Q: What sequence folds into this?
């Protein structure tokens, strides 16, 4: 059974701090990885995608991928209360199958 | 707005009813997806269509029946559902669904389904 695992949280950080969200995946054949943000009652929206080992930065967000360790992370710098949401990690394997983790709830305290 | 619309946004139905969920994408994508999201559980992929052909059926019960008449429209026909089928049903689309291309999925707002 191919899985994506995330700590459900909640992860609580003060405003302005760095939030670190982690994810592991079981399928070594996974090629693409995604972080989605989902506000309560809303649908997921893409934050970052990453395909190669290393870091990828986009504004306050940095995604990190380590295929050897089957580990993906998302760092949010200068966290804001508006970043409070559930963050979903997803992997895309061969074919059309995207597997999502259950999500980590992030709470940024003002 | 992501360019993916879903109707209705909320649906309450009895176990003997027949209803349909509709999804439409205005992004020119070729792949469309149905997901089920239940409380405290990961998003569950139900069906994938690529160029109108079904490419994934993730062991979904036959009381859920998908239909994809063209690359822009996707339906989920519901019949004799159970209370445990109550969930948020999300539609998504992507360019072509192929791994390795970085194919991003764009989600619609979802249909909140309650089965009584």
A:
């Amino acid at each position: 059974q191919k899985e994506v695992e995330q700590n459900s949280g909640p992860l609580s950080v003060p405003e302005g701090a760095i939030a670190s969200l982690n994810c592991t995946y079981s399928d070594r054949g996974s090629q693409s990885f995604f972080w989605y943000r989902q506000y309560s009652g809303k649908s997921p929206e893409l934050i970052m995608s990453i395909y190669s080992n290393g870091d990828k930065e986009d504004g306050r967000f940095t995604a990190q991928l380590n295929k050897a360790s089957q580990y993906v992370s998302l760092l949010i710098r200068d966290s804001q209360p508006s970043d409070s949401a559930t963050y979903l990690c997803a992997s895309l394997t061969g074919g059309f199958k995207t597997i999502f983790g259950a999500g980590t709830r992030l709470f940024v305290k003002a | 707005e992501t360019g993916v619309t879903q109707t209705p946004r909320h649906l309450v139905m009895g176990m003997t009813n027949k209803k349909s969920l509709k999804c439409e994408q205005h992004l020119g994508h070729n792949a469309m997806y149905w997901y089920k999201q239940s409380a405290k559980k990961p998003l569950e992929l139900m069906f994938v269509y690529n160029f109108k052909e079904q490419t994934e059926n993730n062991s979904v019960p036959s009381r859920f029946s998908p239909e994809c008449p063209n690359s822009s429209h996707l339906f989920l026909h519901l019949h004799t559902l159970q209370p445990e089928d109550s969930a948020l049903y999300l539609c998504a689309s992507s360019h072509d669904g192929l791994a390795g291309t970085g194919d991003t999925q764009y989600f619609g707002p979802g249909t909140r389904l309650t089965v009584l």
